[in-house]
Amino acid sequence: AASRRLTKYYAGAFPRWWQHSEPFRAAFNGPQGRRRSPADWRRPVPGLSRVPRDPLRVSVMIVTFERPEFLALALDNILQQDYPVHEVVVVDDGPEALTQDWRAVGLGRVKYIHLPARMTIGAKRNVACAAATGDVVVHWDDD
């Protein structure tokens, strides 16, 4: 009986999904429905842009503990993304504040918060989330 209900549910849901997926199917399939080759993936698909005209502001939060080399690499990768990053919030609870000025690395988009005492990773994420001002908050590990 349960399998009949699932079959009935998916039979109703699939056509609804399929009719709304035309732009994505066009991106996957080439002209006349043939599968696109790897070389085609580099060409833009008409009607689909890489970044919306009015993109959501994205805040990326990173929690770290005594790993400045991983943090520098993570910041470099985040700031090179195609989608514009509004801000990066770094929360560190190491014994000493990191000496590098992270704001200079991110051209003013990096907020560095040093916590005086050790905290759990969940508490550090809560601090980062409270400091974020973007529309969307994304978690990124420093390693």
Automatic annotation (TrEMBL):
Pfam families linked: Glycos_transf_2
InterPro entries per the UniProt record, alphabetical: Glyco_trans_2-like, Nucleotide-diphossugar_trans
Annotated GO MF terms: hexosyltransferase activity
Domain Glycosyltransferase 2-like: 59-143
PANTHER family: GLYCOSYLTRANSFERASE (PTHR22916), UDP-GLCNAC:BETAGAL BETA-1,3-N-ACETYLGLUCOSAMINYLTRANSFERASE-LIKE PROTEIN 1 (PTHR22916:SF3)
Name of this chain's protein: Glycosyltransferase 2-like domain-containing protein
Organism whose genome encodes this protein: Eutreptiella gymnastica
